[in-house]
Amino acid sequence: NDVGKVGEHNMWVADLVDNGLNLVVLNSLDDGSDWNEYFSQSISEWDNGTPDSVTLQIKRVQTDPDCQPVRRAMKVCNGDYGPTDWRGVNQIILSNNYIITSVSKMNDYYLEGTNRAQKLYTMCHELGHGLGLGHSDENFYNKDLGNCMDYTEQPENNMHPDESNFKVLEELYGAVNQSVTSSGKTVAVEEKLENNGNRQLTHADEE
User: Of 60, 83, 164, 168, which residue is the least packed, with the fewest Cβ within 10 Å?
Assistant: First the structure.
């Protein structure tokens, strides 16, 4: 798997006729888990950014710790994935260099019993990858940038997306209620999806 680099952004195959990215997000988190609270908060923040470039449609689905990908959607899961080298991971599958599916996993092996800041940071970070964002910065020890796409040793400083994240999303997808010139190209890409090999990109975040 290729691992994304700082600032390496990817774009969803999306119907951009309605302007911006309109994405289904499947909540496959454990019913009784506090992950649902952090999911709801992070989704709301990503969905209501300024500039506003994404519209997220949340669907509750059956709990699926294996987090099997679903085409044209991002699935979010939690589970005890064991002593991996990541607390959270986002895997996207690309076809013709466009995202066609994404899964975000929260690893309870490390995160069960950690504080709200760590969980909210991890959730926000993996959702950001799922929208197509790369990292803002990959140095744990420099000054925190104040957004959740920045690696940090102090997650309480980086629990939310910020304007810099929303501006990148606008560059990728245009703003809601603005015309986007690339929509014709995007539709053409969709038609060719079945005929090309896919490649998978994994952001495994130690945080």
Answer: 83
The DSSP result for the chain, as a single string, is -B---BT---EE---GGGSSEEEEEEE-S-TTSTHHHHHHHHHHHHHT-SS--EEEEEEE----TT----TTEEEEEEE---S-S-SEEEEEEEETTEEEEEEEEEEHHHHTT--HHHHHHHHHHHHHHHHT--BSB--SSS---SSTTB--S-GGGS-S--HHHHHHHHHHH--TTS--TTHHHHHHHHHHGGGS--EEEEEEE--
Q: Mind listing the pLDDT tens digit for each residue in 99-157?
A: 999 999 999 999 998 999 999 999 999 999 999 999 998 889 899 999 999 999 999 99
Round to whole Å and give the CA distance between 30 and 79: 8
Supply the pLDDT for residue 7.
Answer: 64
Would the pLDDT of 184 be above 50?
Answer: no
73 is written with which tokens?
């959607």
Joined tokens for residue 111: 């995160």
Provide the mean pLDDT of the chain: 85
61, 73 contact by CB (below 8 A):
no
Largest separation between any pair of C-alpha atoms in the chain: 47
